[in-house]
Amino acid sequence: MALLRYESQVREPLVTGAKTYHDVTEDIVRPIEAAPSRLWKIGFTISVLLLLFGVYSVYREVVYGIGEWNLNKTIGWGWDITNFVWWVGIGHAGTLISAILLLFRQGWRTGVNRAAEAMTIFAVMCAGQFPIFHMGRVWMAFFVLPYPNSRGPLWVNFNSPLLWDVFAISTYFTVSLLFWYAGLLPDLATVRDRAKVKWRKNLYGVLSFGWTGSTKHWQRHEALSLVLAGLSTPLVLSVHTIVSFDFATSVIPGWHTTIFPPYFVAGAIFSGFAMVQTLLIITRKVLNLNDYITMEHIEVMNKVIVLTGSIVGIAYITELFISWYGQNPYEMAAFKNRYDLSTPYAWSYWLMMSCNVIAPQFFWFRKLRRNIIFTFFMSIIVNVGMWFERFVIIVTSIYRDYLPSSWSTYYTPSVWEVGFYLGTFGLFFTCFFAFAKYFPVIAIAEIKHILKKNGESYKDNMGEEEKATVEHFTHEHAHH
Amino acid sequence: MAKKKFVVGCFDDEKVLFPAVKKVRKAGYKIHDVYTPFPIHGLDQAMGLRDTSLHTAGFIYGITGTTTALTFMSWVFNKDWPLNIGGKPHFPLPAFIPITFELTVLFSAVGMVLTFCYLCQLAPFVKKHHFHARATDDLFVMVLECTSRTNEADAKAFLESVGAKEINVQEAEDGWWLGRYAKEQKLYSTPSENSLA
């Protein structure tokens, strides 16, 4: 098995402080057992209020129709689909951390994977709202499913990328949820077995499905996690690829490009990691988990941000180059509509460029990568930038179509359009606050699993190990 | 399911547990199970458990998803209602790939998780006997099943000789049940109290 692994002295410990297995349990479960703090209550209340405002905004849209939004003749997608793509993108970091980094055997993922996966699930929940309510007559939403109906049966169009989206997003949500919950089972059992009050023992008893920690069960659990990671890896790449197909398979200048799938996937990971940073910097502070989510974790994620941000930058420049190189007048006009400062939306293009391409370059400096305040600030900048990327792609490509007489006036969202977006923030943070209070935000069993290899107190002993012969090392560490 | 008698030995270090498992097996004791707070690589082999076939099940569910998607979409477009969509072909394989892929993943993941829960007998409201409350915290709990030939005192002494810290005998339900935990099962105790559950 993969146990025979040399752990470099140079690499920083992933768990700081001299922790025992019991300390790990204590540190991570304590916030669940304690009464919610004042800060938590305030945060949760604000989230619920935002959610309620969102519910009212959606209510307006459902009752009075899409006219409640300021969409117009050429801008049919506006804020709504911008938000959809933005939220789906955010979800991608969670799967990248939980699945792709598991396959790459990146030990640092253990500290952050649980919260990142939760973020994925909540972000996909938020994303799903937008296309569903954009349908207008939302009570007909089930028409997108291929079920035997009394209209023929008239089936859905399997050639349509919008239908592929239905399958991609729902599969993504289901698989992420299963992966996340399968990983939670042993940790929920830990909470159950520590419970000193009846209701908690019963609640977590139900939630943990009667997990015991049997060796056979662990063996199957490991197999399950590995295969789910193997499935999630191409899945997550397919999801944003399919989202990009919504645009790329159309014939709209500015959308009709083959670069979209990799460009969207890189952007998704970029924005997702920024959101992970935003959430975890707060979480580690509030729940006092600095020993588990260390500077090392934050620095590594900042490296991912500078990498993916640069990939996104190359994609932007490639798009510009190809529009010139192709010499298609419509394509060139679409891009002129973005970068030319005299056009109405140039500000959004340059805002996107500064947030996504220029700003992350600061992370080439180690000092800044390891600066919490700066990282937090940057994580917000990146998310603003990535929202504007989708806005630029959608709005600037369609606000001037082939017929100048239908060129729309300046598009500003209505209050209910903004309210819907704020509402999804409410939904996201309501879920995240509830998760942070009632579930272990760090994978306890996984931390214990790496503790003796990557924990600070154990790393000190590595010097001894290095002196030993290969035979001795094999004998000690490969147990069969 | 009936109640059985078990000799339980708790270890606090997996480095002690590994040789202990080997010695206990060599001495001829029947290991009912070893409960650990986290997966320990190689323990399954040390206990002589066979490798799981869950991967194979996942593969079978996956190809079921692939064939379901492909046959269904082909049937709809060619047989049930061959709708002309802008003169496009009725078997556009490239356009079928995304949905085929998604259903492959969906079938495989859902199937595997359900199979996992079935094999491990895990479900909401299912209760099982826990030999030690700290088996999900920091103890490695080895449980020997008593047969008609087992001498409890010998087994306890043997467990102690291989490094077990806490040793006791428990009569417990082997399988699962629905409803409440046994009344006498104590709630969690901190390690310092060192009490036996």
TrEMBL record, chain A:
Entry protein name: Polysulfide reductase NrfD
Membrane spanning residue stretches: 39-59, 84-104, 116-142, 162-184, 223-243, 263-283, 304-326, 346-365, 372-399, 419-445
Main location: membrane
Superkingdom as given in the UniProt entry: Bacteria
Membrane topology category: Multi-pass membrane protein
One Pfam assignment: NrfD
Family: Belongs to the NrfD family.
The species this protein was found in: Flavihumibacter fluminis
Swiss-Prot/TrEMBL keywords: Cell membrane, Membrane, Transmembrane, Transmembrane helix
Keyword Cell membrane: yes
Keyword rRNA processing: no
Database matches in InterPro entries: NrfD-like (IPR005614)
Subcellular location: Cell membrane
